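Before a colleague's protein record goes any further, I have to sign it off. What it holds is a sequence and that sequence's fold in token form. My question to you is simply how this chain folds and whether the tokens agree. Thanks in advance; the entry in question is below:
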Amino acid sequence: MSISQSKNKVIREVTPLSDRDFFYIADRSKSEFTYPIHSHQEVELNFTEHAAGVRRIVGDSVEIMGDYDLVLIASKNLEHVWEQHECRSERVREITIQFSEDLFNKNFTNKGQFDSIREMISKAQRGLSFPMSAILKVYSRLDNLSAEKDGFKAILTFMSILHDLSECEDAKVLSSSSFAKIETYSDSKRVQKVQSYINENYKSDIRLPVLAQMVDMSPVAFSRFFKLKTGKSLSDYIIDIRLGYASSLLVDSSNSIADICYDCGFNNLSNFNRIFKKKKNCSPKEFRENFRRNKKII
């Protein structure tokens, strides 16, 4: 693989995938993770085993991995890296599969039978992490895919892996939409109206009664309705939006942490630090340092 410089000084990976390839796969053994934070045009399914202690950063999601990890990343601008951190394993295995983002929007694959895969890829614009139950379901096929000599059979196996993963209901979205710069809205017009308002006014004090009045509902009824439609309480949703913008500023600006705190709608620095650490498993200072250490400027 080769690398080139992107405008925001994050490595833009250039993969060997050509227009004639259905997908590209790399199956390798390693004892350390050294590749810097990067992004790439292709959709990537990345599996690791025996890698407990590795720190995985996808957008503004920072997590310490267990022995097994399976992640799908589908945005060309979503920065990500697997960092050595506390991993001491000498027998890490990493399988990386990359394919074109428009693979399922052309000809034969642009059919209803592939809707669940397209929906999964759409969600993966923010990164998707799959639970152990999904990993176990596809493990044997992942394990043998790189050794398959018959190209047609390899494609069928790959498609079956994606299909089974697309049926997983417990896949976790990783990066916040505000950090990934991806607009995600509910199918409810009432909730869409409120989400747009929050995205435009996250720096200001946002009050439940004001939002409820916007959609002609009582505050109590709207709170329940919002959580039903988004899967998050209103307060958690607002916090996640603010944290996403704060994370972007930590990465892309030299503003002080205090300035970022207040610029993103938090009115108390200690509260901002506490919430950030709870949500991101690191302090704002550590988050900034993680990104700066892993970025490579050329």
Remarks:
- The first strand starts at residue 2 and ends at 5.
- The radius of gyration is 20 Å.
- The domain at 2-173 is CATH 2.60.120.280 (Jelly Rolls).
